[in-house]
Amino acid sequence: MRAHMIASCTVESTNMSTNANHQHATHPDEHERAVALSRAAKASFIGNFIEWFDYASYGYLAVIIGRVFFPESESGLQTLSAFAVFAMSFILRPVGAVVWGAWGDRWGRRWALSWSILIMSGSTFLIGILPGFAAIGWWAAILLLLLRMVQGFSASGEYAGAGTFLAEYAPASKRGMYTSLVPASTATGLLAGSLMVSGMLVVMDDAAMQSWGWRIPFLLAGPLGLIGRYIRVHLEDSPVYQAMVEELPSEPKSSNWAEPLRLLAYNHLGDVLITFGVSCLNAVAFYMLLSYMPTYVHEELGFSQDTATMATSIMLTVYIAAIFFMGHLSDSFGRRKMLIAACVAFIVLTVPLFYVMTHAAGMLWVVIACQIVFALILTANDGTLATFLAESFPTNVRYSGFALSFNGANALLGGTTPLIVTWLIKVTGVTLVPAFYLTAVAIIAMIAIVKSRVIHGSELTEAVGEGASDE
């Protein structure tokens, strides 16, 4: 009996020791995963920050940029021309989506992201040193357009790559919250651009802004891009992607870099069309509310430019504060429910909110209150969309599917939104045109979401429709 007790104690002691050693051995692995996730988050954040800092600066400085590059046009056409260049920069987005998506699926997320940020920040920096119309005539506008198109090409791999990268790194139960860092970084870039432009408008006169002040935000992209490139080069690719690569045949990767596109076209075309439809609402709402809105408040509602920019800065602050909470809610309730709720809110509230703003009679607090409501509705969509798109495609075509649907929507509807609504207001004289436009797009997105089927909370290792249940 005593011998049996001693043996039992010995076995139990051995098991406890083994468990302790196992826990000690696995703890560093958990720590390493946490560190890797933190690095992935930083790498995903900085590229989108630079991209949207540039877009914010361009949008908020559109009037001044119009004077610098299109001085022979009358005032309204100067702004319209600046927004036309803004829209034209999106022409290469679908091309960039195809190229960066294929490269990201074939050679890795990290590889694609490290190059996209370098090209994007480089072209943005060159805009900052570009001579104006007074120096080189219409060549200034042509070069501005070319640089914006290069920036659009490289940026097309940025949001999709960061969303895919972070979704694959994040634990399934918290994927929505972690991936919401991607839209949060875009809004932070917009907010930083808004605050910088607001500060510049306060401390600089019109002559200084038009002469050299407008260049400062674009010049900052140079050093920021080099920092982002350094961070990304020193990352490992996502565990999900590495696991997929290990299962692939051993032929050289360069033998068929377009294979992800072929698989996407043959096996997932329906998913691309649906996710394109879902992305349309994000494309229009994001650019209308967070990029075009300062121009609308200034030119259509009659507020000063710095006041309009300040109001949008408040909206952006609310957006950033709420975006992670919406990502968390998508983890709890599912992506489709959150996206449908956002569509319903846009359909029901967009026209009334714009109507209230246009009849605010100079009451700034009313305009700000309406913009805050818009920010909350938008975060329900944006805090969910990146995760939704990542979960809509299997690993071998995830980057390509995400990039093509997201950038296709942004090229067709997002980048053209400021131009379209500015032109429609000019033609019709109706200041509620943006509201009608946004409501129509929300209806289209609602139809697409209803037809979607996305895996919620899967490990992102199975093909869509296998191994997990919807919502």
Automatic annotation (TrEMBL):
User: Where located?
Assistant: Cell membrane
Q: Where is the Major facilitator superfamily (MFS) profile domain?
A: 40-453
Principal place where this protein is found?
Answer: membrane
Q: What function does the entry list? A: May be a proton symporter involved in the uptake of osmolytes such as proline and glycine betaine.
Domain of life here?
Bacteria
- PROSITE patterns from the UniProt entry: MFS
- Does the keyword Transport belong to this entry? yes
Alphabetically ordered keywords of this record: Cell membrane, Membrane, Symport, Transmembrane, Transmembrane helix, Transport
A GO molecular function term, named singly, is: symporter activity
CC terms in the record's Gene Ontology section: plasma membrane
Query: What is a single Pfam family found in this protein's UniProt entry?
Result: MFS_1
Full protein name? Putative proline/betaine transporter
